[in-house]
Each structure stands twice: as C-alpha cells, then as structure tokens.
Amino acid sequence: MKARVNDGCISCGACVAACPEVFRFNDDGVAEAYTDVASEDEEAAVEARDNCPVAVIDIEE
Ligand code: SF4
C-alpha cells in the first residue's frame, strides 16, 4: 500500500500525529509520505487520510 500527499497540505499535523510511521513534515513544512505503508500501519494511514481537513492524501494498493 502506498500513500501520497498532494498539493494543498495546510500543515495541520493530523496525519503526522495519526501515523508517524508513514507521514512526516518535509523541509518545506508540508506533509509527505516518506515510506510505503506496512500492513500493520494500514489502519492508521487510512485514518490519516480520512481525517485530513483538506483531503489531499491518497492511498492506493
Ligand atoms: S492531515 Fe492533511 S493538511 Fe494536515 S498535515 Fe496531513 S496532509 Fe497536511
């Protein structure tokens, strides 16, 4: 499973808090998915996607 943060992140930090195993802030201060989503992190990654206030996170198989 892969996650991607599209343009438009407002740096709220929700995804980084929900799933730090996948999301972090990059040098520009916006969130990025820095690794593939391991099976044990899928639930947290989906939660991060669903809770993003601007819906810029995509998750695909
Ligand atoms: S939850 Fe959405 S807006 Fe908030 S930091 Fe993550 S990608 Fe950015």
TrEMBL record:
SUPFAM superfamilies: 4Fe-4S ferredoxins (SSF54862)
Role according to the record: Ferredoxins are iron-sulfur proteins that transfer electrons in a wide variety of metabolic reactions.
UniProt KW keywords: Electron transport, Iron, Iron-sulfur, Metal-binding, Transport
UniProt cross-references to InterPro entries, sorted A to Z: 3Fe4S_ferredoxin, 4Fe4S_Fe-S-bd, 4Fe4S_Fe_S_CS, Fe-S_cluster_ET
Source superkingdom: Bacteria
UniProt signal peptide: none
Chain ranges of the 4Fe-4S ferredoxin-type domain: 1-28
Protein name in the entry: Ferredoxin
